[in-house]
Amino acid sequence: MPSPSSQHHAVETLYVEHHNWVVQMLRRRLGNREHALDLAQDTFIRILRGPELPTLREPRAYLTTIASRLCGQYFRRQALERAYLDALALLEPEHQPGPETRLQVLEALDAVGQVLDGLGARVREVFLLSQLDGMTYPQIAEHMGLTVNVVQKAMLKAYRHCYSAVYEA
Question: Structure pTM?
Answer without folding.
Answer: 0.68
